[in-house]
Amino acid sequence: MNHVYFKQPYQKSADTMVESAVREKGQLLICLEENLYHAKGGGQPDDRGEIELCGKRVPVEGLVKRKGSTYVVVRDDPAFDDVGFGEPVRCLVDWPRRYLLMRNHTAAHIAMGALARLVDGYEPCGIEIAEDGSTCAMRFTGSAGAALPDLQAVEALVAQVVAQDLPVNAESFKSVDAARATLPTIFRSDPRLKFNGNVRVVTIHEFDANPCGGSHLARTSEVGKLRLQFAGWAGSDGVMSLCLSLENLNEMPDPS
Ligand SMILES: [Zn+2]
After folding, report:
1. What's the 109 CA to ligand 1 centre distance in angstroms?
2. Is 10 strand, coil or helix?
3. How far is the CA of 87 from the centre of ligand 1 (A)?
4. Range of the domain at 33
5. Model pLDDT for residues 215-246, shown as the tens digit of each residue
6. Residue 193 maps to which CATH number?
7. pTM of the full predicted structure?
8. How much of the chain exceeds pLDDT 70, in percent?
């Protein structure tokens, strides 16, 4: 299985074939040779879309990960009885939604990088992008009741990075330590996450670098305008929550 969205996040469709198929409780789970769909992880929700199989076009009902493979879940159908290895499949991703998720995810990288630069005492510890892609909850370790970061200053630095139209790239490193050694001034990583072996690092040119398996924009200018708001302290462990909201939700360079 090859994850298409890792290298070509702007690809909206793919012609591929079934590697294996499993039937469970009225559903058909299909592992594809070329997987177009991002499965929930790293704070980014499942992709949605459709597949064309055996002359039928059906919605993707979900994605499941098993033993390192991603399976596309569709409702089973008598037309799919003989589906197995080699069956041709056409995949289509819900592109407006995917693009919004990419904008939001890239915005979160910029905002966390900006906060890490401007504010001492807060470590990013995860994001959760809303299913509709409009907002993102960002969490930071800190201490409950401490002075809040100057969000206007963070927003201003984010706007500057967006205006600079910096390239965003994903690079593979042998380890987190190798990535940190190569990008010492911009690398950041949630200290609670453990990585073994190869790690995919998303870099925003000379601004930020962070291990991530999601899908991102090619350039920062595509993020557009956003707002940051304090959303509260979570529990008693001093985790600060910020809400990132994208503006101009229908803004797309290529709506096709
Ligand atoms: Zn990411």
Report:
1. 6
2. coil
3. 32
4. 2-93
5. 999 999 999 999 999 888 776 567 888 999 99
6. 3.30.980.10
7. 0.92
8. 96
Structure tokens at 182: 């190569």
Q: What CATH number should be reported for the domain holding residue 22?
A: 2.40.30.130
pLDDT, tens digit (0-9, with 9 covering 90-100), for 22-74: 999 999 999 999 999 999 998 999 999 999 999 999 999 999 999 889 999 99
Burial class from Cβ neighbours inside 10 Å (0-12, 13-18, 19+) for residue 26 reads: exposed
Cα 208 to ligand 1 centre (Å)? 11
Q: Which residue has the higher pLDDT, 252 or 169?
A: 169
- Do 76 and 126 have their domain in common? no
Q: Tell me the CA–centroid distance for residue 16 and ligand 1, in Å.
A: 26
The Cα 250–Cα 255 span in angstroms is 9
- What sign results for the dihedral spanned by CA atoms 245, 247, 250, 256? negative
Tally the C-alpha atoms within 13 A of residue 85's C-alpha that lie toward its C-beta. 1
**pLDDT by residue (tens digit) across 195-215?**
888 999 999 999 999 999 999
Angle between helices 95-118 and 151-163 (to 10 degrees): 120
In the structure encoding, which two tokens stand for residue 4, read together? 């298409």
Q: Rounded CA gap, 240 and 165, in Å? A: 29
> Ligand 1 mean position to 203 CA, how many Å?
9
Helix or strand or coil: residue 248?
coil
Q: Which residues crowd ion ligand 1, with CB under 5 Å? A: 105, 212, 214
pLDDT of residue 240: 86
Instruction: Evaluate whether residue 252 is within a structural domain.
Output: no
